[in-house]
Design a protein that fits this description.
Chain lengths: 88, 278
């Protein structure tokens, strides 16, 4: 499983980018429709776009840290297992 | 390892190569001009029945993938033995390693088995359908308005269902709903509602946008990799008149990228479910 995990780690490269873009897209959509149904002057749309940027960075960094921590823990577990099996 | 080639094999390989070269010359001469070849790029054949619009290639290939998996499962079940054969060993290794991965990630013991079932079935379906994207076969080409232009034989791969955003979005939304249903079941409705306002109520819009963006990024990642790979192979192959390159690139995008993306989709499904449970 460790070999496979090394491949999956490559995915971390695009996790952050995709997260930020999809957050901005969702926030933009919500802002666009809220704006259309309420004041119709594009203020809410722009506010929501900025909210999307902030939320993308916040959630992206949060997820990256979580993933990194998880992989670190799993790698450490694997190393310990190998050492034990070698010494025994 | 020593490889010995007999005279008979040499003749067979030589005749295959000669046929390949001759057919390549004919194929290169009969290729349409650039504008015509790229005019149908990315267009799909759709059929409208009443108010419902369906994508026949996705439906047909989806059924084929489903049948392949069912056939494999029944053939493994028929030969179930204590000392496993090749197929049984493959199935056992796959399911066992997935079960361990889910056990490592999901904190609540009650939800290990349901999560395992969801993630593994997603992985199997997506993996097999990505693999179809590496085998040359029959594909449908559509006009801009969705009508059928032609059915091309062996100039493209089978169309994998995962190259259609509808399939991926369905699975991503399914994971989204399942993760929140599990969260309500594990934590209770009040605690689940409270989790939207953490660390403080000002963060509610950000949490909402972040949660809604999850299925989008989840599905678009897979769709972009598979559909983008198909388009890239088409353009590359046209540049060199379909000579050798498509075979290599189909293999690369179908087997290598396909396996990684199927694994990533399943692992992200596990991660999203376990993130809701903590």
């Amino acid at each position: 499983m460790k070999g496979l995990r090394d491949f999956v780690k490559l995915n971390l490269v695009i996790v952050f980018g995709v997260e930020v873009i999809s957050n901005i897209a969702v926030a933009g959509l919500i802002g666009y429709f809220l704006d259309k149904w309420t004041f119709n002057n594009k203020v809410l749309f722009i506010i929501f776009l900025f909210l999307g940027v902030a939320s993308g960075l916040y959630n992206g960094i949060k997820d990256l840290l979580k993933e990194a921590e998880k992989y670190e823990k799993l790698d450490k577990k694997d190393d310990n297992g190998n050492n034990n099996s070698n010494s025994s | 390892m020593k490889i010995s080639i007999e005279r008979k094999d040499k003749i067979i390989i030589g005749s295959i190569l000669i046929t390949f070269f001759i057919s390549w010359i004919f194929a290169a001469r009969s290729l349409p001009p650039t504008e015509e070849a790229f005019s149908s790029l990315g267009h799909r054949w759709v059929v409208t029945i009443g108010k419902v619009t369906i994508n026949p290639s996705t439906v047909i290939m989806g059924t084929v993938v489903f049948l392949i998996i069912v056939w494999f499962a029944t053939s493994v079940r028929k030969e179930l033995r204590l000392i496993p054969g090749r197929k049984q060993a493959l199935a056992e290794w796959l399911l066992d390693s997935f079960y361990q991965m889910v056990e490592d990630t999901v904190p609540d013991e009650r939800f290990v088995k349901p999560t395992f079932v969801v993630a593994t079935s997603l992985f199997l379906y997506i993996w097999v359908s990505n693999m179809l994207g590496s085998v040359p076969g029959i594909s449908f080409v559509g006009f801009e308005d969705g009508t059928l232009k032609e059915i091309s034989l062996f100039t493209d791969t089978w169309q994998p269902p995962t190259a259609d955003l509808n399939t991926n979005l369905t699975y991503a939304l399914m994971v989204f709903v399942i993760s929140h249903a599990f969260a309500i079941k594990a934590k209770g409705f009040k605690a689940w509602l409270k989790s939207w306002f953490e660390p403080n109520p000002i963060m509610f819009p950000m949490n909402l946008i972040g949660e809604l963006a999850k299925p989008l990024s989840h599905s678009l990642r897979l769709f972009g990799n598979i559909a983008g790979g198909g388009i890239l192979v088409f353009i590359f192959s046209y540049l060199v008149k379909y000579f050798l390159v498509p075979v290599f690139l189909w293999g690369f995008f179908g087997i290598f990228v396909g396996t990684i993306q199927a694994l990533v989709f399943a692992i992200l499904a596990i991660a999203y479910i376990s993130a809701q449970l903590t």
